[in-house]
Amino acid sequence: MKRPRQQAERRGRLAEFIAAAYFRLRGYRIVGRRQRTLAGEIDLIVKNSRALAFVEVKIRGDLETAAYSISDYQRQRIARAAAAWLANNPAPCHMDIRFDAVLLAFPFHFRHMENAWRIDDVRPIRRR
Q1: What's the domain count of the chain?
Q2: Is 103 within the bounds of a domain?
Q3: Does 122 fall in a domain?
Q4: Is 67 domain-assigned?
Q5: Which of 12, 14, 26, 83 has an alpha carbon 20 to 30 Å from 111's alpha carbon atom?
């Protein structure tokens, strides 16, 4: 019998795999998976010709619970992680930077929320 933490980890990896497949089918390129920075982890980083998206993937019992599980603190942490990632990987100036969410609930409930939140003050962290 698997422990609850291990089961949650497996569900999370499956959800990220499904989200990555969805983005590939929509013409996005996967730039990174589970990208770790000093500020935190970013589940997926995807891009197309116009936008670079930092994606938070959540899987819960229903889509509403998944949506509400992305707290204000998490949004700020993801924004800081995105800024740290951008400091090392500058995006071309013509690209829009956005924060997306992919919500999953079994069986077969899926929602991609483009521009799920905006943080206008997310800027690359400059190295000294």
Answers
A1: 1
A2: yes
A3: no
A4: yes
A5: 83
**Can the peptide bond before residue 92 be classed as cis, meaning omega within 30 degrees of 0?**
no
Residue 96 maps to a domain: yes
Distance CA 49, CA 81 (A): 22
Full domain range(s) for residue 62: 4-117
Give the chain as a DSSP string: ---HHHHHHHHHHHHHHHHHHHHHHTT-EEEEEEEEETTEEEEEEEE-SSEEEEEEEEEESSHHHHHHTS-HHHHHHHHHHHHHHHHHSPPPTTSEEEEEEEEEETTTEEEEEEEEE--TT--PPPP-
Write down the residue that tokens 């690209």 correspond to.
95
Write the pLDDT tens digit of every residue in 75-122: 999 999 999 999 888 877 778 999 999 999 988 899 999 999 887 644
pTM of structure = 0.86
